[in-house]
Amino acid sequence: MSEINALAQKLMTLISDDVEFEAGARVVSRGGVPDPITAILDEIDNTVLERNLEFSADANTVNLIAGGRRLRGVLAVSPESHAHIVGKTLSREEPELVQATSALLSEMFGGADRLTVRSLASEPFGEESGERGISARRLAELWEQDADETPKSPMERFLKYNASALKSVMHVNKGEIISTVGDFSALQGMWNNQVMEFRKTNKNMLTGKEGPQLICLEGALDDGSAAALVIADNEIALMAYEPDKLSAMQSSWRGIFG
Amino acid sequence: MVVDELDALRDRFEGCRTIAFADLSTQMILVTDSGSTLPRETLDDLCAQAAMMLGANGKVFLGSHESSAAALANNSGLRVFVRAGQEPNDVLCCICEPTVDAGAFLADARASINRISSGD
User: Fold this and answer.
1) Which of A10, A255, B31, B115 is buried most, with the most CB atoms less than 10 Å from its CB?
2) Are residues A94 and A180 in the same domain?
3) Do A22 and A50 sit in the same domain of this protein?
4) Which stretch of DSSP H or E encloses residue B70?
5) Which residues in B lie closer than 8 A to residue A208 (C-beta atoms)?
6) Which residues of A touch B101 (CB under 8 A)?
């Protein structure tokens, strides 16, 4: 990750996220935003003094020993699994251990709707090998996370996170179509003929300023598909989506725009 | 009674503030949950919003067809509108906190409006 991008991402975090706690643990990813594995790497990158970082989502908990912006290794896993990597100090000389740790975190948290962290006092860990673990930046490379990616706009992040739920997409910025996915002809019809009037009528019904909105309509399209509209200032996204993904879309919308 | 069904739905979801049963053909709120203190004008606006979101009397504002259900999330809350399966003018209009799970609430609200509409 370049220094500029690293700085930009930290600044975006500082200005856009209000810190939220859940049962005393800090929420670091909500609705997949940021990506849970990226959130874990960010926490490691922010840990200078050695700590026991306890990550939890649903019934899964993983304790990691981190310090000096490096991950030393996995202290504990609950429910118990991956015993072969617990207590082992990560080393670039042992790529299988590094990838097994990535697999563990992806399995436990890759699809987490809400990921939390507690920063606990460190505990004795691993064997006396002199290994200090691997830096968060290096792990991002080894685990092929999008750490070098230019920060995306909120709308782009929403569309990326919900990509699997969306059959077609039309993303408009300042009146210009900037990206599409799938067969978006029905969405274009909505954009050309309906969105402006809908937005005007809807705005009149809202009290106060028109802020970001997620509007979902089941069965609104010709083929029976559900249609959704996300409004955020000058950006609008029209989508055909899978109705059973409504909760996930709402959750990520709250994480990004709420 | 309809009000009991509305109260029961509201009580199942912490963060659900108001539920109203409406007739979209006349665009009138017929019954609200027993805890609602919203003024008549606000309820009229809620019903008008339901008509705009779902479509009513042959008029569709967004999409090609009237919708079976709709959700609107913004920073002040979540609004859910859902039609009865057999009597499409019978709808529930619901105002919730932003934290309420739209998918879970919608599924429960759909079952409620179907019971209300069928008289079960």
Assistant:
1) A255
2) no
3) yes
4) strand B69-74
5) 76
6) 247, 250-251
DSSP secondary structure string for all residues of A177-232: EEEEES--HHHHHHHHHTHHHHHHHHHHHSSSS---EEEEEET-STTS-EEEEEEE
A42: containing domain:
3-142
Whether residues A32 and A111 share a domain: the answer is yes
| ipTM score | 0.95
CB B52 to CB A205 under 8 A? yes
Residue A248: list chain B partners with CB under 8 A. Answer: 103
Q: Is the overall model pTM greater than 0.95, yes or no? A: no
- State the helix-helix crossing angle for B2-12 and B102-118, rounded to 10 degrees: 170
- Mean pLDDT by groups of 10 residues along chain A of 258 residues: 61 59 86 85 93 95 95 95 90 92 93 90 81 90 71 83 92 94 95 93 74 95 94 94 93 86
CATH of residue A200: 3.30.450.30
Which residues of A lie closer than 8 Å to B, measured between beta carbons?
186, 189-190, 194-195, 197-198, 201-202, 205-208, 211-222, 227, 229, 244, 246-248, 250-251, 253-254, 257-258
Instruction: Give dist(CA A213, CA B78) in Å, integer.
Output: 10
- Both A112 and A207 in a single domain? no
Q: Is residue A236 in a domain?
A: yes
Do A135 and A178 belong to one domain?
Answer: no
Chain A CA closest to residue B105: A247
